Amino acid sequence: MLRLPKFQYLKPSTVDEACSLLKKHTGKAKLIAGGTDLLPSMKQRLFTPEQVVDLRQVEGLRGIRNGGGKELSIGSLTTLSAVEESGVIQEKYSALAEAAGLVAAPQIRNMGTLGGNIALDTRCWYFNQSHFWRKPLEVCLQRGGEVCHAVKKSKQCHAYFAADTVPALVALNARIMSSAPIIIRQLISPNWQNSALAVFLLIGWLKGMSRLILSGAWRKKNR
Ligand SMILES: Cc1cc2nc3c(=O)[nH]c(=O)nc-3n(C[C@H](O)[C@H](O)[C@H](O)COP(=O)(O)OP(=O)(O)OC[C@H]3O[C@@H](n4cnc5c(N)ncnc54)[C@H](O)[C@@H]3O)c2cc1C
Ligand code: SF4
Predict the structure, then answer these.
(1) Most ligand 2 atoms within 8 A of CB, residue of 47, 122, 124 to mutate
(2) pLDDT tens, residue by residue, 133-177
(3) pLDDT digits (tens, 9 = 90+) for 81-94
(4) Where do the domains of the chain lie, and which CATH numbers do they carry?
(5) Ligand nearest to the CA of residue 110, numbered in listed order
(6) This model's pTM is above 0.85
(7) What distance in Å separates the CA atoms of residue 51 and residue 69, rounded to the nearest whole number?
(8) Where does ligand 1 bind, in terms of residues with CB under 6 Å?
(9) How many CB atoms lie within 10 A of CB 127?
(10) Which helix H or strand E contains 210, and what residues bound it?
């Protein structure tokens, strides 16, 4: 049986509190939302954070609201099921509703959040395995080593980005509001060609996100 490593469990109730905990424990803490990806990864010892900051009690991070004007605002803690089943998303941003409905199985979609999906870590057959499985292999670039087992002699990691909702969010020109004081960046650029790359490159920088904004402008412009 795979067990969780020891960690300190922190439970902020506001975005500011969550941000200051992240700042205080920079590099050692991990955010947790639904936990569907983080907890199995911790059991596999892919990550062993000293602190786990639980976002689930943080006010205002759940739900789908009218963001004013032609915008729709989706809290990062909104579950994938809620995104999939939302009437307004089905009607105005059907690609996102469809993409959310394609993630894993209903149990994962009921727990897993949109924020957790966007911040999903990359995947690789040689990395996303148990500690026992990985032990005979030399540590790869992903963990600070010097080899890549997937592409021999490569000097860069080729793990792929697997989050199903992100291509839809990119196509819909979604913006992410990050609440982390350290990094406030627009994740998705208006240029579709570059934005797939931007998602991939910037994802590692994302320390904490609060809401996504979807604007009606994209659909209007392109109809
Ligand atoms: C069996 C199985 C099948 C799966 N299949 C799919 C699939 O088909 N498609 C797919 O896309 N995914 C899949 N997943 C991955 C995952 O379950 C989903 O992507 C889910 O949406 C993750 O959301 P979560 O809230 O559970 O994230 P968590 O596990 O809580 O967190 C995931 C990552 O996001 C970070 N994070 C969470 N919230 C925030 C935030 N607000 N700001 C910044 N960082 C944050 C965490 O620190 C962590 O690094 C699968 C997982 C399992 C276990
Ligand atoms: S460095 Fe290579 S082996 Fe390691 S996670 Fe990346 S692609 Fe996989």
Answers:
(1) 124
(2) 999 999 999 888 999 999 999 998 888 888 999 888 878 878 777
(3) 999 999 999 998 89
(4) 64-120+159-222 (3.30.465.10), 123-157 (no CATH)
(5) 1
(6) yes
(7) 39
(8) 30-38, 40, 55, 76, 80, 103-104, 108, 111-113, 115-117, 119-121, 162-164, 206, 208-209
(9) 22
(10) strand 209-215
